[in-house]
Amino acid sequence: MAKIGKNKIKEDGDIQADGSIPVKATMAQTIGATLAGILAVRLATYVVTTVWRLVTREDPPQVDMDIAPGKKAAWIALTGAAAGAARQIARDKIKPPTGGAA
Questions:
Q1: Is 51 among the domain residues?
Q2: Is 24 in contact with 98 (CB distance < 8 Å)?
Q3: pLDDT reported for residue 38
Q4: Number of structural domains in the chain
């Protein structure tokens, strides 16, 4: 077991690829990241909905609407990708990742 400063680390993988030592997130960071993620998803959904209305000149498709499957699939893919990316970006800004590759 090596010792760097006050932190004891195991030789078998506690150091990240960039040479830094992972630090556990605080409770405030966890709560902040959760709230920021929720806000980011709401904002991303609003932006995607507005852009959809400007581009197509119609409301986004609802689940029970009888429309072309391609249009419905495009809407689901667009909102899902935008919401997921926004949540992850907001989370990583407040609570940086501490582990290696997922």
A1: yes
A2: yes
A3: 95
A4: 1
Compute the mean pLDDT over every residue in the chain, rounded to the nearest whole number: 82
> Which residue, 29, 11, 5, 13, is CA-closest to 96?
29
| 67: in domain | yes
Question: Is 69 within a domain?
Answer: yes
- Domain of residue 59: give its range: 26-94
Q: How far apart are CA 92 and CA 36, in angstroms?
A: 10
> Is the pTM for the entire model greater than 0.85?
no
Q: What sign has the CA pseudo-torsion 82, 84, 85, 86?
A: positive
Residue 46 lies in a domain: yes
d(CA 97, CA 95): 6
